Amino acid sequence: MGFKAAVLVFPGSNCDRDCKTAVETTIGGHVDMVWHEESALPSGLDLIVIPGGFSYGDYLRCGAMASQSPVMQAVKAEAARGVSVLGICNGFQILCEAGLLPGALLRNAQLKYVCKPIELTIANRRTRFTTAYGDQQTVWMTQGNGDGNFFADAETLKRIEDKDQVVFRYVENPNGSVNDIAGIINEAGNVLGMMPHPDRAFEPALGSSDGAPLFKSLVGALQSA
Amino acid sequence: MKAKVHVFLKPGVLDVQGKAVEGALHGLGWNGVNNVRVGKLLEFDMDGADPEAAKAELKAMCEKLLANTVIESYRVEVA
């Protein structure tokens, strides 16, 4: 049975095709593009990707309006069933706004849009998104956002850390994120949100292939399930 | 009824926009300005005549969409 993924598309998404290509190139399988007004997702999905971009023009708050869209109600139901969900950049913001991940993303502390290759440490290599990294300690991906400053109150932060929910940390913090957090996973271990872009780092031509194992990990997770 | 919803970052949450505005005001010579916070004001018309019911609706709107209570607090007014 082939791998089945869906990439959500909102008005203002701009990494949706990158995500589709990343999944197709790294693990193959079938990738459907799903418009935000759909209230149902294709059946039998192995992965839902919420791509980067500026959904609804970042109006009100980044990800706020997208988190209330019909398709996100379907994503919540699938996430509750254990389907893997990956939110990248604006996708991470949407997952936080939707309450699928704790915390929120604030404006970058130094007020600059950060757009550059960035080095991350893998803080948790036992998730279904990180097993294929083996012993690799750090990865290079690219970052491109103005609101990537992860924030959670002290109590929430302690819970995230205690439960090993931090998956990626910045080697050099570019935006003021608490505890250098670049990506976190939910308690159940099936919803990952991250600001850096594995979808812009999955083959040598892109300057880094370090995003590829993230997608490949999911195939391993299916085979061992 | 006219409704007003004020949304601000909670105290303790870094307001970089407020910091930037504060820096600009200092640059213009208003050195007595401190703790600038930039928030949002949403204004709209609402059906109905019961201010208390309207406030309850506004609170629900804030919790659901207009504010992110992880980082923001809000205040509602009807007139």
What does this structure look like?
The complex is a heterodimer of chains A (about 220) and B (about 80). Chain A contains 5 helices and 11 strands. Chain A is an alpha/beta fold and about 220 residues long. In chain A, strand 3, helix 2 and strand 4 form a beta-alpha-beta unit. In chain A, helix 1 packs across helix 5. The two termini of chain A are about 15 Å apart. With about 80 residues, chain B is of the alpha+beta class. Chain B contains 2 helices and 3 strands; from the N terminus they run βαβαβ. In chain B, strands 2-1-3 form a 3-stranded antiparallel beta sheet, with helices on one face. Chain B is elongated. The model of chain B has no long low-confidence stretch (mean pLDDT about 95). Chains A and B meet through loops of A and helix 1 and helix 2 of B.
Write the layout of secondary structure elements.
The complex is a heterodimer of chains A (225) and B (79).
Chain A: E1 4-9, H1 16-27, E2 30-35, E3 47-50, H2 70-80, E4 84-88, H3 90-97, E5 104-106, E6 114-122, E7 138-145, E8 149-151, H4 154-162, E9 166-170, E10 181-185, E11 191-194, H5 212-224
Helix pairs in contact in A: 1-5
Chain B: E1 2-9, H1 16-27, E2 40-45, H2 51-66, E3 72-78
Antiparallel strand pairs in B: 1-2, 1-3
